Amino acid sequence: MERKVEAGAQFAVTQPVYDEASVRELADAVRHMGIPVVLGILPLRTARHAEFLDQQVSGIAVPEHVRERMRRTADATAEGIVLAQGMVTAARQLFAGPASCRLLTIVSLV
């Protein structure tokens, strides 16, 4: 990312992030660059969705503890929303500015 900033990047946009530890690592890694970071947030819908993102989508890691949480819940959609709300809170605390996160949504057509 430093090369991109040196080449003129004025902000960074991340892939979806699923745990606060990852958000903190990211914040620590880019703080010295002095650019805004827009954290990607994609609410998980099911345990299968979490597994798919972790295993099949390059650049997205869904930690085991999050996938386990999705497997154990009785209402996966509600749990995914709770997890996303936590990422919004972390983004607001660790990254400055009103555009500190972007919420990606999945629309079900059935």
Describe this structure in words.
- The chain has one domain (about 10-105).
- A three-stranded parallel β-sheet has the order 1-2-3, covered by helices on one side.
- About 50% of the residues lie in helices and about 10% in strands.
- The longest helix has 19 residues, at about 75-95.
- The radius of gyration is 15 Å and the shape is elongated.
- The model has no long low-confidence stretch (mean pLDDT about 85).
- It contains five helices and three strands.
- Helix 3 packs antiparallel against helix 4 (about 65-70).
- By secondary structure, it is mainly alpha-helical.
- It has helices at about 1-5, 20-30, 45-55, 65-70, 75-95, and strands spanning about 10-15, 35-40, 100-105.
Strand content: 5-15%
Separation, N- and C-terminal Cα atoms: 39 Å
- Helix count equals 5
When the domains are counted, the total is 1
- The rough form would be described as elongated
Helix content: 40-55%
Series of secondary-structure elements, N-terminal to C-terminal = HEHEHHHE
The main pleated sheet reads as:
3 strands, parallel
User: How is the largest sheet built, in terms of strand order?
Assistant: 1-2-3
What Rg do the Cα atoms give?
Answer: 15 Å
Give the number of DSSP strands.
3
Task: Calculate the mean pLDDT score and round it.
Answer: 87
Structural class: mainly alpha
Low-confidence blocks of residues: none
